[in-house]
Amino acid sequence: MEWWMSLSLFFAGMVILLLTGLPIAFAFLVVNMVAAYFFLGGLPGLMGVVTGVFTSITTFTLLPVPFFILMGSLIFHTGLGLNAVNVLDKWLGQLRGRLSILAILMGVIIGALSGSTIATCALLGTILLPEMLKRGYSRRMSLGPLMGVGTVDALIPPNALTVVFASLAKIDVGQLLMAGILPGIIMSALYLLYITVWCYFKPEEAPAYEVTSVSLKEKLVVTFKYLLPLGLIVFMVIGFIFLGVATPTEAAATGTLASFLLALVYRRLNWDILKKSVYDTLKVTTMIFMIIIVSNTYGEILAFTGAASGMTNFIINLAIPPMVIVLAMLVTVLLLGCFMETVAIMMITLPIFMPVIDGFGYNPIWYGIVMLIALETGLITPPFGVTLFVMKGVAPSEITMADIWRAVTPFVIIGLLCIALLIAMPFLVTIVPGWMGMK
Q1: Beta carbons of 350 and 164 less than 8 angstroms apart
Q2: Helix, strand, or coil here: 22?
Q3: What gap in Å lies between CA 192 and CA 187, rounded to an integer?
């Protein structure tokens, strides 16, 4: 069978199953089992799929996933993350647009720990949106930052999503984690710059209000009490990987242990919180590992049938500049983000995209970061971005989808600007992993 026929059958079967409402992992599983039976020799092919289940997840590179999730769950359920946000709130003082700025800072902290754009949006919308509207903030300055900041989630470590991406793309986990730091800082800075400039020219959209004065001494006390210890946990993950002291798995385990100890020191750890954190970790880890299992099998079947190599050779041999093809791949990711969650898009595209990137000779770490930004930007792209409907679900009834589209558009533009910046200056991605190589 020709490679394009095999690929067409795989995609057609997958789309049909997804349209029935079947979860993405199970849709892939059904397609994999049917394809294995017909393309891999019947029952022996099915046995090979079962064997592949164990080999696909019994790998050292996936161990940071449950550690990162457990660390984030502990910090969230114990309230340590919100304590850090409250400290930042005290430092903002009477700053114009302070709640919008706080939304960005809060989103970076929570998003880095959860690694889920949708979860971050829902949480921020529940906590901050009522207060922003009550203070007279415009819908643009209220809704936009709450949705836009989710784009940074996959860039600022520690987060499990980057580990999953690295595993599916078969690239170095530590380098990909480090590579996202500088782009994440740049994107966050552009968000803050946009809010500051817009509030300067349109002060009525973020009216000032009286804020309780806090002395410098109190600010320093709460900073040392709540913010620096949390920063120490982050350093134990990022710093240890960067300095070469620990592998990503060891650093994730160390950070998780530190979060346990910190919760004990603050007397926030009890049986109920421990049970919630472990349950969340088991639930999310099982879902992620299930996805990785079916994704690896999907990739192996594509390789065996020649669909992956056929598609790769076809794309590479096109009389089109390689960068145009890379841009087309990114546009595809942006469009898929309007209909699917991030991990589902990675499962579908990475087995095809990564061989093409290798064939063109591009740095896979660079492409990984650019694609992560495209993945997250797709989730907030009007009119069908998944995150937009999450915000509609948590927003008051008078907020319309048109309000949400208008509010999020500047942040989509910033995301696209960051992609263009990283394409024009790829060293912004590779510089930090390069420093790691010098250690």
Answers
A1: no
A2: coil
A3: 9
The mean pLDDT of 76-80, rounded to a whole number, is 80
CA angle 32, 37, 40 (to 5 degrees): 95
User: Which whole number is the average pLDDT over 88-99?
Assistant: 78
Number of Cβ within a 10 Å radius of residue 18: 18
CB 71 within 8 A of CB 112: no
Contacts of 270 (CB under 8 A, 6+ apart): none
Number of domains in the chain: 1
Identify which of 407, 345, 410 has the alpha carbon closest to the alpha carbon of residue 376: 345
Q: Tens of pLDDT along 310-352?
A: 777 887 788 889 999 999 999 888 887 776 677 778 877 888 8
HSE value, Cβ hemisphere, 13 Å, CA-based, for 389: 11
Give yes or no for a contact between 334 and 381, defined as CB atoms under 8 angstroms apart: yes
Residue in this structure with the two tokens 């380098």, named with its chain if needed: 175
Structural domain boundaries, residue 328: 3-438
Place of tokens 């000032």: 208
Work out the angle at residue 345's Cα, subtended by the Cα atoms of residues 339 and 349, and round it to the nearest 5 degrees.
Answer: 130
Query: What is the rounded CA–CA span in Å between residue 69 and residue 113?
Result: 7
In the numeric block, the tokens 């940074």 are attached to: 152
**If you count DSSP H runs as helices and E runs as strands, how many of each does the chain have, helices first?**
23, 0
CA distances for 251 relative to 169, 233, 238, angstroms: 21, 10, 8
Tokens of 403: 């309000």
Answer yes or no: are the C-beta atoms of 155 and 184 closer than 8 Å. Answer: yes
